[in-house]
Amino acid sequence: MEKLNKNEIIELVAEKAHLSHVDAKAAIDATFDLITDSLLKGESVNIKNFCVFESKMKAGRKGTHPKKHTIIEIKPKRTVVLHLSKEFKAKLNK
After folding, report:
1. What is the pTM of this model?
2. What are phi and psi of 93, to 5 degrees?
3. What are the beta bridge partners of residue 80?
4. Which domains can be identified in the chain, with CATH numbers?
5. CB under 8 Å to 76, separation ≥6 — which residues?
6. 10-residue averages of pLDDT along the chain (94 residues)
7. Looking at the DSSP assignment, which residues form a beta bridge with residue 28?
8. What count of other Cβ atoms lies within 10 Å of the Cβ of residue 10?
9. Distance (Å, rounded) from C-alpha 82 to C-alpha 46?
């Protein structure tokens, strides 16, 4: 399975949108910064016909230490959840 990294995304955006590499990099960086800032504020990010990013709080719970096999307390933490749109799921499952 191929992986697409940030530099490859920049190159593809530059080619598809007829932008210079510098302009495409600035656009991609700005987009990622805006998504990150919104999630850090607790806001959701809705990209129509693609996905919704949401910042959620995961509850604390008890777990087991993998080596000592003792009960440990896992602290609550924030995480990001991604929900795919119906349109994207339909395209994905064709």
Report:
1. 0.80
2. -100, 15
3. 55
4. 6-92 (4.10.520.10)
5. 57, 58, 59, 60
6. 92 96 96 96 95 95 93 95 95 92
7. none
8. 20
9. 10
